[in-house]
Amino acid sequence: MFVLTELSIKNFAIIDNVHISFSKGFNVLTGETGAGKSILINAIEMVLGGRAAKEYVRRGKEKAIIEAIFQIENPNKINKILEEYGIKSEPDNTLLLTREIFSTGRSTSRINGRTVTLTMLNNLTKYLVDIHGQHEHQSLLTWENHINFIDLLGGNKVFKLKKNIKYYYNELKKYRNKLNSLTENEMERERQIDLLKFQIEEIDNAQLEENEEDELMNEYNILSNAEEIMKTIGDITEKLNSTDFYEKSLIDELNNILTNLQKISEHDSKLENYSNIVESIIFQLQDLSRELRLYIDTIEYDPERLELVNERIDLINKLKRKYGNSIKDILKYRDKIYKELQILENSKEEIQKINKEIKKNEDKLSKLCNELTKERRIIGNNIEKNITEELKKLNMKDIKFKVKYDKYDYFTENGLDKIEFYISPNPGEPLKPLSKIASGGEMSRIMLAFKSILAEVDEIPCLIFDEIDTGISGKTAQIVGRKISKLSKTRQIICITHLPQIASISESHFYIDKIVSNGRTMTKIQKLDYDGRIKEISRLLGGYNLTTSTKKYAEEMIKNLKNI
User: Fold this and answer.
1) What is the mean pLDDT of residues 311-339?
2) I want to staple 462 with a disulfide (CB 3.0 to 4.6 A). Which of 129, 140, 197, 347 is the partner?
3) What percent of the chain has pLDDT over 70?
4) How far is it, in rounded angstroms, from Cα 326 to Cα 320?
5) What was the pLDDT predicted at 492?
């Protein structure tokens, strides 16, 4: 179980700075209309990951800050999520959520001090709190949502069936889209075939090789600079080994140096090393001279070959501009479009294959959907019985509740079923759609009946009811209060109410008031002691003209808590 223990709100709407410490069981908040009860719920929605807006920031302030602390009794599921996000869990099993909303419209969210995205925050908080207000009734008024109530009670079996149905439904969509792309526009298909054939032919005619571009560029540089290369190498070889009888070459000069060194080395053996060095240089220069002469024989200024190489480079650059940044990319693109061409040219065979896949997925879907329908009918029968019993306990004794089934004539990712809830609230009235017959008070009790049943399976530990008691009073209000109180034995309940019958049953009672200080309106929240509860419940009973009898009645209502 997870308990919302602390809630701090600062600079949020008309809330200046409040701090609330909630208890484990049944918490009630009451106050005058407009005092800020709904704003408090909005703040809780924000810290849980709701959509923020700069209008929530109190006028004149830079940002609003909301913090919520949860005490986690069974932390395995939450700790697993925290570990996945790389967030350290606290040793005392507390969880701190922080939301800052700036006046610019920007907002930041944190879990245990670590900044997270709204998606990450929502993935965590969906296991913590479930907020139900008057707007939640709309989910019951919309028949498309009724199937979700059925599936929530289906457990792991329904979850797996729906997961498999969604998978095969997406596969079916994929193959149908492929089929449409092959058959919907024959003219476009022929145009695409012609284009792909042209591109493949253009690439194939070029007879590209992966490494030829570097070789071509090197050959181009040699051919385009052949004259300069030959002249320069000729000058170098002439310097190394001159053929001019009157001019000594560099090698001749070095031979003279060698001869002189060899003569004087007879006087000092240390000079032999220098002789050896010079002799080695001479051999290397002679080798260099031979290599350069051989190289120069390979160089030939060939304008025709230069033009051919230049044309080849231009062709490659043209293909690169159209099909890829390199020859490797061009060839890769060619293989890709060849496969596309094969599919288009063999579309009849491909269509047959696709139709087989469509049929296979339809058969699989049909089987799975039928299994899901059977499960939903079993669940629906149980819901009819359980909801009727719950509503009778909530003072709707003559009600008839029915789950009506129909089917789509096409597959959806949710199966084939169309499900709608019907009721007859009074004897002799025919069953009609829930959305067309239920009053506000009836909707409050029907929603509470669903929550009573779903609370056993959804495992959400904290339920917040925002005036779910709308439209009821008297004995019915007392019955609803007892039902909520019963829920609080296994769940933390935070309930905003205007009914004394519900407020008197709570374990912790908070009073929300609106005050004006220094020309600014602000919300004030205080936890009521016994005398404060007597006073507030008396106000709920009889307005501001408190009498001895209303106070006495309020005291009796609180004392009767022990009998619930």
Assistant:
1) 91
2) 129
3) 92
4) 6
5) 87
**49 forms bridges with which residues in the sheet?**
none
Per-position DSSP letters for 394-438, written without gaps between them: TT-TT-EEEEEEEEEEEEETTEEEEEEEEEE-STTPPPEEGGGT-
Handedness of CA 425, 428, 430, 436 (dihedral sign): negative
Higher pLDDT, 394 or 166: 166
In whole angstroms, what is the distance from residue 110 CA to residue 67 CA? 9
Q: Smallest Cα–Cα separation from 284: which of 260, 247, 250?
A: 250
From 361, 401, 346, select the one nearest 165 (Cα to Cα): 361
Residue in 489, 383, 461 with CA at minimum distance from that of residue 150? 383
pLDDT at 229: 87
Show the CA angle centred on residue 210, arms to residues 209 and 215, nearest 5°: 80
Please count the other Cβ atoms lying within 10 Å of the Cβ belonging to residue 468.
Answer: 26
Distance CA 457, CA 476 (A): 26
Has residue 331 got a pLDDT over 70? yes
Helix (H, G, I), strand (E, B) or coil at 246: coil
Name the residue among 50, 38, 45 with its Cα closest to residue 68: 45
Beta strands, E only, 413-558: 415-424, 432-433, 462-466, 492-496, 508-517, 520-527
Percent of the chain with pLDDT over 90: 30
Displacement of CA 178 from its chain's centroid (Å): 27
Select the more confidently predicted residue: 426 or 444: 426
Residue environment code for 358-391, b if the CB has 16+ CB neighbours within 10 A, otherwise e: beebeebbeebbebbbebbeebbeebbebbbebb
Q: Using CA atoms, how far apart are residues 314 and 2, in angstroms rounded to an integer?
A: 71
What pLDDT, on the 0 to 100 scale, is given for residue 441? 62
**How far apart, in whole angstroms, are the C-alpha atoms of residue 306 and residue 295?**
19
pTM (predicted TM-score) = 0.59
Residue 109: burial class (beta carbons within 10 Å; 0-12, 13-18, 19+): buried
Helical (H) or strand (E) element with 467: none
pLDDT class of 338 with cuts at 50, 70, 90: very high
- The predicted structure's pLDDT at residue 502: 87
Q: What is the DSSP string of 37-49?
A: HHHHHHHHHHHTT
- What DSSP state is assigned to residue 92? T
CA gap 82, 539 in Å, rounded:
45
Place of tokens 């069981």: 25
CA distances from 100 to 67, 103, 105, 120 (A): 9, 10, 10, 16
Q: For position 458, what pLDDT does the model report?
A: 61
Average pLDDT over residues 103-125: 91
- The residue among 294, 284, 295, 293 whose CA lies nearest residue 251 is 284
Q: Provide mean pLDDT across the span 545-556.
A: 78
